[in-house]
Amino acid sequence: MRRISAIASTTFTELIRLKLFYAVCAIGLLLIGGSVFFARFSFQEEFQILKDISLGTITIFSSLLAIIATANLIPRDVEDRTAYAILAKAVPRKDYIIGKLLGAIGLIALSVLMMSALFFAILALRENAVLNALQQSPASSPQDMAATIATIHHAASWQLVAPATLMIFLRSAVIAALTLFVSTFATSNAFTIVVMMMVYLVAQLEPIAREYWLQARTAGVAARSFLALVAIAFPDLQALDFGDAVASGIVLAAPLILKAAMLALFYVVLYALLSIASFSGREL
Amino acid sequence: MRAFWLILIFAVGGAIKIPAEQNLARQSQARAALSLGEKFREGALLASLSGLRALAANVLYIEAHVAWEQTQWARMLLLFRQVTALQPGVVLFWDTAAWHMAWNASAAALNDSREPRVALRVRRQREFIEIGRQFLVRGIELNPNQPQLHEALARLYRDKLHDHTGASDSFARAAALPGAAAYDERFSAYELSYCEGMEADAYERLRQLYQRGERERLPTLLARIHALEEKLGVPNADRVIR
After folding, report:
1. Alpha carbon of B49: minimum distance to chain A alpha carbons (Å)
2. Which of A22, A60, B55, B195 could potentially form a cystine with B51 if both were Cys, beta carbons 3.0 to 4.6 Å apart?
C-alpha cells in the first residue's frame, strides 16, 4: 500500500508540473467563464445554455487531460529508464500500474474540481443577477412571484448539477484507465493518443453496437461478431453522461447515480486488471 | 500466457458489464426512446460525441434564434431539427421549436406580402402549424413525463387549430403529471365545455372545480358554468350560478 501511494503521489506531482495541465485547465476555465456571455435569452434558456456549455467543457477537457496525461506515463518512464529503476527495487508491476493510475486520477479530480468550482460560482452569480432583475420588475401576483423564484432556484441549483460533475470525473477516470491499458502495449506516446481518440469515438457508439447486437437478428455472422467485440471490449461512455438531463432541469435519482458510479468503478477496475495483465507480460 | 489472461479478463468483464449497461440505458428515457434507425440517422455520430453534443446543440440553438430574428424560416426549421436530434431530452428545445414554427413562422406565412394568393398563404400557414405540432408530438413521445410539452400542445390545439377536444385531452394529460401548472386541470375543463356533445361531462368537471373553493372560482370558470347551465337547461334550483 505504501508503495502504491508513493508511486501515486510521485505521478501526481509529475503531472501537475506539466505545462499541459495548466494549458488545458486555463482554456477550460476560460470557456466556462465565457459561457456567461453566450447566454442572453430568457432565464430558462440562459441557465440551460450555461449548464450545457460548462458541463460540455468540463467533459471535453477532463477527457482530453485523461488521455494526454496518462498516455505519457509508461512510455516516458520506459524511455528515461525510471521504470527499470523502480521495478528493479522489488516493486511489483501491479503496484506500479495501480500507482500510476491513481496519480492520473488525482490530476483529473483536481482539474474537474477547479472547473466545477468556477461553474458553480458563475451559476450562483447569474442566479443573483436574475433574482435582482426580477425584483425590479416583479411578477403580477405574490404566488406567481414565488413560483418564478422557485423556478430560478431550481434552474440554478448547483446541488442538482453536482452529481453530473461527479459522473464526469468518473467518466474521465475510466478513460484514464483505458489509456493506461493501451499505453502498456503501445510503442509510442503518439500511438496511444491516436488510438485513444478512436477508442473514445467508438466508446460513444458502444450502446448502438450493443443494442444492435442484442436486438438485430438479420445481421450476418461477421457483422454480429464485430458488434459483439465492440460491445464486450469498449465501455459505454454514454451511460455515464448525465449532462443533458441535468442541464434540462431533471433531478437525478440517487439509485441511478449510484448504479452509474458502480459501473464506472467496474470499468476502472476492469481496465486496471487488463493493464496489469498486459504490463506483467511485457519485456522491459 | 499474457494473451490468455487478457482474453479471460475481457470475456468475464464483458459478461458482467453488458447486463449492467443495458439496465442503465433503459433508465435514460429520451435516449432509450429513440429507435435504432434514428440513432444511425444523419448527425448520429455528432450526436454521440457526448460533451460536444451539448455544445453543438447550443450553438445551433443560438443560430436558430438568429434565423428567427432574420425570419429565415426554412433555415430555422433545419436548425431546430438538428438541435432536437442532438438533445432529444431537453424540453426547452422542443417547446421553442414548436412555438417558432406554429406561431411565428405560420403568422409570417399568412402575412407574406410576396405571395398575393390567399389560399397559398393559408396553406403555408397550416403547414407551419403542423410542423410545430409534430415537434411537440415527437417531443412528448421522447419525454412523456414533462407537463410543459403536453401544455404547449394543448395551447397549439386551442389557439391555432381550434380543436377543443385535442386541447382538453392535452391539458388533462399535463394536469395528471407531477410538476404541472395549477391551471391545467381548469383549462382542460374549459376546453371540454366547448366540445359539442360533451357539455354534461364538462359541466360536471367545472362544478367539481367550483366546489373546491374560492381559489378556483375565477371569472372564466363562472362564465363557462353559466353558459353550460343555459345550454343544458339546468333547473334554477340546481344551478351553481343563479
Report:
1. 6
2. A60
